[in-house]
């Protein structure tokens, strides 16, 4: 059960309208690493969690907080759009808010579609979609995805902070930046805890003897130069402590030369050199195609 209270988690009060900045702010609302993404990602991870109760509770705690962040940013966007378009660019624009929106650089859908409100889209109007979210059921894999989401999200909020001088907007963004600091620490702590009870390679439950272990710890140089040989990933003990890294300066091909068979006649591919494509008689065309 969810329970809504009227007060926002933190203030979302711009000092003045700014419809162009409202367009930019859409990125941390409906973008790939925006608040809608992490909200949905954490909620579905929590809903589907079959692990120890403390993990489900923690995931739903942060997922519910992200609902509050969505509300905060949507409220900020709506207030930034108050009075928009802020200035008439020319006589025609003064009589047509949509024209003024385009000329002024704001998102015209804020005037046409949402009635000066936030939309579930990114900063260029691309709609949010569920493919942005990850909820695999493997907590270590999911928590690493969560750490990436919070890292990218905090980076974007910081960039938006740098692109405005509005003290009210900066105040809200400073709160979100601080919460992203906590959330990155939270996921790192959870990852560390999980790695103490299982191998760090996901999934840890797959028998390693079934993989091609000859290449399990080999770093292969597939580019000109050997600067990559100096990295931690190419020397010393592997992170999972199961072997030592090996550096292969000139990896060799280990597979066969691909040779595909001639496609059936009904596919109408180009014939292979030296081969005549099998003929199709009228009876073939009287029957439905096998792949249609």
TrEMBL record:
Question: Sorted alphabetically, which InterPro entries does this protein's record hold?
Answer: Ferritin-like, Ferritin-like_SF, Mn_catalase, Mn_catalase_C, Mn_catalase_dom
Q: What is any Pfam family matched here?
A: Mn_catalase
List every stretch annotated Disordered: 270-292
Q: Which residues form a coiled coil?
A: none
- Species of the source: Ornithinibacillus xuwenensis
Entry protein name = Manganese catalase family protein
Question: Which family is this sequence assigned to?
Answer: Belongs to the manganese catalase family.
